[in-house]
Design brief:
single chain, mainly alpha, two-stranded antiparallel sheet, binds zinc ion
Length: 118
């Protein structure tokens, strides 16, 4: 009985548990030795996937930079064009906001353009 069980287990593909190093069936959802729910270890990311994540991170940075730039330009434009005093501040805030609103889709367009031509 025990022998038959062992032979059956021997035919299963065994991997080393990521957490305790004991043999675990490849199809096991949890390690019977240590109870780890990821005996195969965290999902290995392919190079392609890593590159995609890097591009997305770069796109996020670009989004922030372009938005900040547009908001800054808008704020500057509002401050220069404003009548002075409190009205100038409101103009600066208003144009800064408009700049940010324009900056987000502008950054998206840049990102899409780059992903097409890279
Ligand atoms: Zn284990």
């Amino acid at each position: 009985m025990a022998q038959a069980q062992q032979r059956r287990a021997g035919r299963q593909e065994l991997i080393d548990c990521h957490d305790c190093g004991h043999g675990v069936s490849f199809s096991a959802t949890a390690c019977p030795h240590c109870g780890s729910t990821e005996p195969a270890g965290p999902a290995v990311q392919s190079r392609r996937e890593l590159q995609r994540l890097r591009i997305e991170a770069a796109n996020d940075r670009r989004l922030v930079v372009v938005t900040a730039l547009c908001a800054g330009l808008g704020t500057f434009y509002g401050a220069v064009m404003g009548a002075g005093g409190a009205a100038s501040w409101w103009a600066a805030v208003g144009y800064g906001f408009i700049g940010a609103v324009i900056g987000v889709p502008a950054a998206f367009v840049i990102n899409i353009g780059r992903s097409l031509f890279d």
